[in-house]
Sequence to fold (755 residues):
Amino acid sequence: MAFDIDMIKKVYANVVERVDAAREITGKPLTLAEKILYSHLWDGKPTKAFTRGKDYVDFAPDRIALQDATAQMALLQFMQAGKSKVAVPTTTHCDHLIQAKNGASSDLQSALNTSNEVFNFLESVSNKYGLGFWKPGAGIIHQVVLENYAFPGGMMIGTDSHTVNAGGLGMVAIGVGGADAVDVMAGMAWELKFPKLIGVKLTGKLSGWTAPKDVILKVADILTVKGGTGAIVEYFGEGATGMSCTGKGTICNMGAEIGATTSTFGYDDSMERYLRATDRNDVADAANKVKDYLTGDAEVYENPEQYFDQVIEINLSELSPLLNGPFTPDLSTKAGADMTKAANDNDWPLKVEWGLIGSCTNSSYEDLSRAASIAQQAIDKNLKTKAEFGINPGSEKVRYTADRDGILGVFEKLDATIFTNACGPCIGQWARYSDPANAPKNSIIHSFNRNFAKRADGNPNTHAFVASPEMVAAVAIAGRLDFNPVTDKLINENGEEVMLDEPTGWELPPKGFEVKDDGYLAPEEDGSHVIIAVKEDSERLQLLEPFEPIGNDITGAKLLIKAFGKCTTDHISMAGPWLRFRGHLDNISNNMLIGAVNAFGKKTNFVKNQLTGEFGGVPDTARAYKAAGVKSIVVGDHNYGEGSSREHAAMEPRHLGVVAVLVKSFARIHETNLKKQGMLGLTFANEADYDLIQEDDTFNFLDLNEFAPNKPLTIEVVHADGSKDIIMANHTYNENQIEWYNEGSALNLIKKENA
Ligand code: F3S
Fold:
């Protein structure tokens, strides 16, 4: 059994007691999101009400999911914690490192050839420490989670933004950085700012050509890519209960595209049907017993304006099929005449070259069956498909069942390429061109979630439009972006005018799901004998060494770089080609701060080595200081480290000998990541002191031996001419975080406590 029914029953036992307590404390009825949050407090039963958008709260998630790209550093760190097993149920999924080129069998084999070292590492670490392991080809993390692990009322975190997909099965599921996942795997709490709440009331019913995808495309249109920031989006109303569980998953999945913390739906019959169809009768039975606790209180949904921070209402009966894009998922255009105009006005190519169906967003049995009902019509009505088809099923369970039921066969008759059950074209792993940077301008349509430039095929000139699977099928058959299947005719091979009928499909497979090998490997009960093999000369993996404590004596530290203006985690640790080295701290450290603009000279990756007077790249200069036994300091501007929760942005400077990052202000997650790595994240008490910092400065910390909560630190800055300034630096370290610093890292402290 892949899931843990005892754990779920425990959650449901807590939910009743804790939700009742939360209702009393807050003195009001509760939304579903609040119920899940209050029933997962680290400290147990709620004793106080939290202020949304303000209070930082410790939570105890029920599950963790890791994908192969982010799992590498997360697991390398976890290995440092000195634990024999993960503290909460965790799974690893191999889906991002598989290229889409010629089709599943040869593509999967070449992924095994190129990344086997990484897959083997993930498999053996999973086996040793009690994580479930899903092999390459088993499926895409979020589809596999929905089929096997998601459960109504649960809380999970995952090292991938689209972890939010599990909201379709009534969870609060949130994408996090590796460092957060490691904390929870090691038995620590997980901190989150108590989110704001956006309510989306769905009235009416989807029909004809509209699909759940159109709901989220519409929400993205209304809220834009930033509108959900810091909030949980909760869907309710007759329109919500009227759609399938996997359709709800699609809507929650793309909550990431509006920046939402996560999205969720209350438990209903569609979820029960899905749980039973995916072999989880015991979860459905347990959920039914606490049904009322797994959805928002009736008063909340009757008067949503009183209980949500923002309310949106969408009438599904009036919704029409949308195409969002290009280059941003929140730019909505209605199919047909609106698209003709928008494409002409903006010079978007109307000819569509590819229609791609699948990804974690839209690869359910229902999605594939509805798209296939359109594809079948091309065959029956003797239409020649104008664009090429590519399909990437979400899981082996869906693929096997869809193949058994002839669904994939329909696409194959249209010469579709069936890619591996993996991310493939959704994450730029689509080998469409030999030279993508110089590839021609073109349009594609897909049922994925993201459509930023280069996202699918690396070609900056590919205009990607996001739509429902059935619309992707129709548009790909017509080969025109502005095709409106409701009104437009097509000419078939006999020269006759034909129209496409509305899509039909199955919410769940009529003959049930079936699979031969789902690709799951359970860990051994006792994995203590498992050896984790990492080759000495590996380019991609490197076992971590515990960081040595920096100590209380920081004198003679040299300025490494004074970052000017915006310095996001991408400036600190770039993505792109560097992703290859995510599991190798020393190699990936060669990208440290290479995107940051140096305040002196305003160039990137060009700083002065104070020991030699020469100029060079940031990583090289840091390495030179480290080799000479000289500590270094990074100075930065406002909101330093904004962007992602990528832990590499904190680990790299720590690895290359940076002892403190002193900035005007931090993005909070990055600040916490610096603390976790046992280094100093400080802010100027007086922002204007940033201007005092000069290129040849040396730093002496005068009172670090008195490092204590709420007590600013005093730093002497010695300039090249011998003059000095005394500056004060604030910090937000609490007692425990000071212990992290004293021990060299949070993981060192955990290890010590476990010893
Ligand atoms: Fe993979 Fe794309 Fe989903 S990269 S996890 S299919 S968003």
Observations:
- Residues 95, 140-142, 160, 162, 359-360, 423, 426-427, 448-449 surround FE3-S4 cluster (CB under 6 Å).
- The domain at 557-754 is CATH 3.20.19.10 (Aconitase; domain 4).
- The chain has a mean pLDDT of 96.
